[in-house]
Each structure stands twice: as C-alpha cells, then as structure tokens.
Design a protein that fits this description.
With 271 residues, the protein is an alpha/beta fold. It is built from 12 helices and 9 strands. Strand 8 (208-211), helix 10 (217-224) and strand 9 (229-232) form a beta-alpha-beta unit.
C-alpha cells in the first residue's frame, strides 16, 4: 500500500477527510518552502501538493501563474523541487508529498530519470496536468515499479468512458475539478459537485479529492461533506502574494497560511 493510500484508509476508519494544501515550490523564495510545508502539516494537512514552477501553466489561474513566475525568477528548477522534498524528509518521513506540474520539465529530465529521482527524494505521487492517460502508459509503469502514485484530473465535463479510463490508470486518488475553468475561479455549484462525485464513486473505489475554488473553512466544509479530500491551492498562494504586497517576512506569511488551514481542518473535523 502506498503512503497516500494509507493516509486515506486511516482517515476513512475515523470518518475524517483529507486536507491537501498546494503551494508552488520556491514562491516567493526557496527559503520559505520547507518551513511552510512543515507548518502546513502542523495546521492539519494530511498530504502536501508541491507545484513545479513552469513558464506556461495553462490550467492555472492568474494567482498561481504569478506564483510560477516568482519562483522562476528565483531560478527554481525541477532539481530544486526534488531537493526541497529531500530537506523536508529529513524530519518528516510520514506526510505524503505529491508533485503537481506540467510535462515539459519532466520530458527534459527524461521519464526514467525523473521517476528514479522522485523515488530517491521519497516523493509519493505525481499529477501532470497535460499528460493524458492515453499517452502515459510507460510512465505509469515506471511509477508503479517505484511504488509511486499517478494522479489524474476529472472535470465536470468528463464523459463516463473517460472517467473509467482515468480511474483504471490512476492510483492514490483522483482529483475532481469542482468548476469549469482555471484554478482560483469563483463559483461553486455544490449540488452539482455532490451529484458528480456520487456518480464517479459508482465507477471507482479510489478516494476522490475536490479542488479549485476552495477559499475558506466554509467551502472546505461544504465540499468535505461529499468528498474524501479537499484540495486548497489558490487561497494559499493568494496569501503569499498578499504577504509580498504588504512586505511581510516569511514567518508572517507562514502564519497566515497556518491560520487558514487550521480553520479548514477544524471545519472538516466537525463533519
């Protein structure tokens, strides 16, 4: 059993939902990333999603696009991201880490080398936004050989045939995009989301995490009531951006994100 699957199994036994925060590695600087990851765990995060900076993050909204731009200004590379995870693992060997990003940096490194280095860094899973399951067979095999999970996105418009295909290829969990559009979009139709998740659950035993549009404890609780996990991205990155605009130091930015995630954790644990 993978570390991700183990987390979901443990939470399910206790009728709890996973809290999965996202940040972009190296935003706004390399020094903040590892301390922020540790504080997110203290705030109640069960799994961490760490973004690989990319110059053309097409699935992301303006907030996370700007995070990638800031990280790239710091010359944050895929190698740096892997090294940050190694630093995190020096004192936390339990919290699953998922890398989220785009195919180009991984292609440049080479699939086999990337999978090997991800394994050596003790990463648990990878979500590559622009790498459909039809094209990723060899990559998935390599990931499975190293006991790494490959996570895929489902959207509100994904057909049943494609849901089945994706769920057959995925492991760890599947990521349901709660809204049509890019990350950070505003409107959540919770009734429709609940219906879609119920429908997807008829086709897979994998846990379902919901992301895009979760901004506060209220939305986390609402979606946590129908999903196995809530994934929080733009809200964290917005706090980083606001911190930069207000000349806050790293510790103050970390505290603001800690406070947000703590409120979400408390709301989820009341379900």
């Amino acid at each position: 059993m993978s570390r991700i699957a183990g987390v979901f199994e443990s939470l399910k036994k206790n009728n709890r939902r996973a809290l999965i925060p996202y940040i972009t590695a190296g935003d706004p600087n390399l020094d903040i990333t590892v301390p922020l990851m540790h504080e997110m765990v203290k705030a109640g995060a069960n799994i961490i999603e760490l973004g690989i900076p990319f110059s053309d993050p097409m699935a992301d909204g303006p907030v996370i696009q700007r995070a990638s731009e800031r990280a790239l200004l710091n010359n944050t590379s895929l190698h740096d991201v892997l090294n940050l995870v190694k630093q995190f693992r020096a004192t936390d060997k339990e919290t699953p880490i998922i890398l989220m990003g785009y195919l180009n940096p991984i292609e440049i490194m080479g699939y086999e080398k990337f999978v090997q280095e991800a394994h050596e860094a003790d990463i648990d899973g990878v979500l590559i936004v622009d790498f459909p399951p039809e094209e990723s067979h060899e990559f998935i095999i390599g990931m499975k050989q190293q006991s790494l999970d490959t996570i895929f996105l489902l959207s509100p418009t994904t057909t049943d045939d494609r849901i089945k295909l994706i769920c057959d290829q995925a492991s760890g969990f599947v990521y349901y995009v709660a809204i049509k559009g890019v990350t950070g979009s505003a409107q959540l139709d919770t009734a429709d989301i609940a219906d879609r998740i119920s429908h997807i659950k008829q086709m897979t035993d994998l846990p379902i995490g919901v992301g895009f549009g979760i901004k506060n404890a209220e939305t986390a609780s609402t979606l946590g009531a129908v999903a196995d996990a809530v994934i929080v991205g733009s809200a964290n990155v917005q706090l980083i951006e606001s911190g930069i605009e207000n000349n806050l130091d790293n510790q103050a930015i970390i505290q603001n994100i800690y406070d947000l995630l703590s409120s979400m954790r408390q709301a989820l644990d009341k379900l």
